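User: Can you help me understand a structure? I only have the sequence.
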Amino acid sequence: MAKGVFSNASVWRVLLLMGDGRSLTAAAQETGQELSSASKAISRLEEGLGVALVDRHQRPVRLTREALRLLPHMRELAAAQQAIASEARRMRRAARAVIRVSLPPGSFNQNKVRAFRAYETAHPGVRIEAMADYGHEALLRGEIDVAAVSYRLEHDELAVFPLGVCANLPLASPEYLARRGTPHEPEELTGHTLLLVRRSHVPLCETLYRADEAFSLTQMRRFRLAAASPADRPVRLLEQIPVQTAPQCVISSYSPTLMSALQGQGIAVDLALGMAADRLKNGELVAVLDGWHRQSWRKSLVVRRRDLQEKPWIRDFAGWYRNFDPAHSRRQWTRWYRHFGVGLSCVRPELEC
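Assistant: Let's start by predicting it. Here is the structure, written out as tokens:
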């Protein structure tokens, strides 16, 4: 038997179509071949097998009895060739379907990791690489493919999709509160230490909020917010209080702030509740200030516009994440609000960074 007999998938498809009743001319057309090319391919196959497959003495040309006996095996061979080609295409896609996803600090948790693994299982060939806090600049440089950010953003090259609002609560260790007292209202923060997080694109916390009230930590004054007032413009002084000493502030990044809170060095104002979830479960940290909180984070998903058009695996992932994250993130913070008996009405939706 000549080499290469089984390598030409087109000739097998032509014979299968003839077995289904097509003429040689019609079968050649359906497989995108010239009639002469299809006829020569059949001749080479017959030579290789040593068996006549078409009866050229009949008009129209028909399969021989030998070819009809071989049809079931031809179908198996054609199916196998198609499966190989399909799997090869999937492998080629898999070689480039690595999705690098940046998440805000505090967004990593076991539920999100499990969701990513489930997505990979449902989308063979896709691998998700999660990393923390790269931001949109890394997206523009091509270092990541998708970014979830917690700050306002507009850019001509980027598509920005809202993901919802995340709120937090000021947290402190029981040891700290036993030593310094538990503040319930922001006026009681005099003499306390606040642990603040400095992040790019996110303003340093200078104001606390609860429903329609705002408290300036720099002025030590309480304000009333109008119904449509932006978070950064308290509109009316609610009450004048005696001038007091503002709390001492210690500014650091996320991880040092978390460790400082656990070590009883102050009240952490900026920690994401998801980041502190394990510490909240075992009581190493508890909520203070009865629902007062820093500005809420309005999260967004950011993707390069050209990737949405040119890379379907990124477009599909972005669509999935836009449905998954808002509900997941809301559950993260509402769970702890209920756990500490804090009403969800304390969070004003339009407050955003």
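Now, to help you interpret it: The chain has three domains: 9-93, 98-165+300-328, 171-295. Residues 65-94 form the longest helix (30 residues). Let me know which part you'd like to focus on.
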